[in-house]
Structures are given as structure tokens and as C-alpha cells.
Amino acid sequence: MNPAILEIGPLAIPVWTLVLGLGMFAYLNSAAVLVYVERRVAAFIQNRVGPNRVGPFGLLQPIADVLKLLLKEDVTPTHGYKTLHAIAPMIPVVTALLSVAVIPFGAGLYVTDINAGVLYILAVASLGVYGVTLAGWASNSKYSLLGGLRAAAQMISYELPMGMAVASVVLMAGSLSLVDIAESQSMWWNAFLNPLGAIIFIICAFAESNRTPFDLVEAEQELVGGFHTEYSSMKFGMFFLAEYMHVFIGSILITTFFFGSYHLPFADLWLPEMNSVLKGFLDVGVFSAKVSFFCFLFIWVRWTIPRFKYTQVMKLGWARLLPLSILNFMVIAAIMFFFS
Length: 340
Hints:
The radius of gyration is 21 Å and the shape is globular. By secondary structure, it is an all-alpha fold. 66% of the residues lie in helices and 2% in strands. It starts with a strand and ends with a helix. The protein has one domain (75-339).
């Protein structure tokens, strides 16, 4: 049997297709898994039990939540902008789905490899702000509008230092392709060579996903619920889905840009030779383990660090991270120029 072909009865499935398909299936279901994991981790941190009623160990709780949202009444504000109110929740979900197209899950395991993959990721990520801003404006509610404006200001503020951190990675790899960036870390991870860029990118990933301590966009104590105050049923569910999908894609990007993607440290020196099938599953396993760790980090931080004030969020972005990211880029450029 060809080691790159999996034969199931009369079917002959290329292993790469199977592994990539499983990866995409896991990505699409990441939100449901993360909801359950977050509830479990939150319960552990707060010394509670967590979900334990629906299914064994509460494993069917995400399905129950989806059914509840599907059966709830879909309410649209009478004086709101109905068309934009309906379109807004789709935008962050679509942008999260589009982002995965250029991510390498392993050697040769990606949907497509374009020579401007980094620009594609940054362009798609920047579109997410439109969904939140339109949701706040179309709801015709003061609380929702304030949440939408906060989202726009916060995302624009943190996209700049994030872009500079990514630019330093592109400079080191010498390519805008995410596949080339992943391959450039086969020996040394960028987190070792560019630690300041890694820290800046991780902080910006938290801010871009509107997660605690950067959840000023939907602060319940101040804005009732922020941009999704006037949303119910599956429209609210789509915002909920988008938040967890952005946590997942944020973890993927942290892993890809700074933590070696599917590579283990110095793998070329100690990892034995293996056939393509085993290598493919090992790559996906390593990549999944790293992404899972950073998803856990997102959850851990949420239940550990209190929310910032809005002035602190803006000051951190503009007065701290942006100058640091520019300085970091200049230092790396100078080192590469003089010591390459």
C-alpha cells in the first residue's frame, strides 16, 4: 500500500487530504470546544464544579447552548437599521473562517500558499472591526454605539504595533509567505530570536479578540453588553462564535509567527527520519499542542487579570507598545544589516 494513500474499502484517500480535512473540521468546531473548556477552567479557578448536567461530564453543554439560541425569538430593534443589523454578525465569523486559508498545519498541509500570506492575514483581520462597528451603529442604541466606537478605536490602536511585530518576523524570514515563515523556524523559534516582538504580538492578539483584560467593548458594568446589547437568538450566537474563533485563530498566529509552527526546537538534530504519514501526524500533533496551550492562556488570563480602564488601554497601545514595536523593528533591521 502506498504510504501516502489510506485505503478504506473501495476508497483511496490521500493522507494529506485526510489530515487537512480533520484540521479544518477541528477549526470549525473550535468554538464549541473552547466554550466547554473555558467553563471547566473557570470553574476550577473559582473552586466550582462547572457544567455537569447535560451529557457525561457536561460534554453536551455546547450543543444545548446552540439549541437554546436557535429556539429563542429573534428580536430586531424597531428603529434600527434592519439590513445592517442582520449582516453585522456575519462579518466577524466570515473573517475568522477566511484567515485559516493560508495557515500551514504541517509540512505541505495548507489550503494554499500565496507569496503575500502575511498581507492577506492582516487584511482579513482588519475587516473584523466592521462587523462590531456596524452592529453598534445599526442597533440604534446608545450602549451599542459606544461599544462599537470603543471597538473601532481599540482595534485600530493595536493593529499598528501588531503589524510592526509581524514586520519584524517578515524581516527575519525574508518572505511574506506563512509557509516560509514556518520553515525558517525549523531550528530557532522566533520567540527566542525576537522575544519583544512575541510579547507585543501576544498582547495585541488579546486586544484584537476583545478578551479580558481588553473587553472594554462589551463591558457589562458600563455598557450593559456593548455592541451586541440589542442582539438575540443566533445573531447573538454568531458574535459568540466569532469571539471564540478569533481566540483560536489568534493562538494559531502566535504559534505560526513566533513559536515554530509545527516544528520542535532543534528537531533536525535529534528527531529520527520517518515516513511522510508519520511526519504529517507528528506535525499536526505538535501544532495542535502549541495552539491548545495558547487557547488555555487566553482563558487563564480572563479569569486572572481584571479589566483595564479605557485610558489605560489607549495609553498601553499608543504610548508603550507602538514605540516599542518600532524600536524592536529598527534594532532587528540593524542587526541583520551588520551581521548577516
